[in-house]
Amino acid sequence: MNNIFTRKRFFFILVGMMGVSITTFSSQLTLRTWTGIHGNQYADSTNWSPMGLPRQTDSVVIPATSQNPEISNPQSPNFGSLHILGGATLSFKNASIILQVQGPIVIDSSATLQINENFSATTGDIIVNGSFNVNGGKAPQFLCRGNLILGTSAIFSKPGENLYASVYHVF
Description:
- By secondary structure, the protein is mainly β.
- Helix content is 0%, strand content 51%.
- The strands form three sheets. Strands 3, 4, 5, 7, 8, 10, 11, 13, 14, 16 and 18 form an eleven-stranded mixed beta sheet that branches.
- Strand 1 and strand 2 (19-28) form a beta hairpin.
């Protein structure tokens, strides 16, 4: 896979006695896919392929499975990118989450990102084509330090109470 989810580009400027040289190269992010083989616990490394918990150098993909992943306190994931495929749900349970994603978070049509408390995405854009549900907490807060891009089929919801949101741009 060679797309925005699996590639980082690096630039180096080398200065020497002969002048300046600019060099570029690409480094592939490791693709780490949720399997849910042993339940719904995000922190169980056997639920991922290849086996192991996602790291900041990983492109994380959540496909539709019989066991949707749940992240609970005190886990604060750090990914290279996050893609929730159609039919899948990623849930953050009983926690105020700081999700660190260097690249985009993409929620496909018929996919859901379920937040039960405060949520902070530290970097990257959030592209919503499916559902982004925020529940729980008296006045939950949503912070995105990138752009919030709502597609034509996007559902951004907070039933009941007010939702306090802070984003750079909403498209």
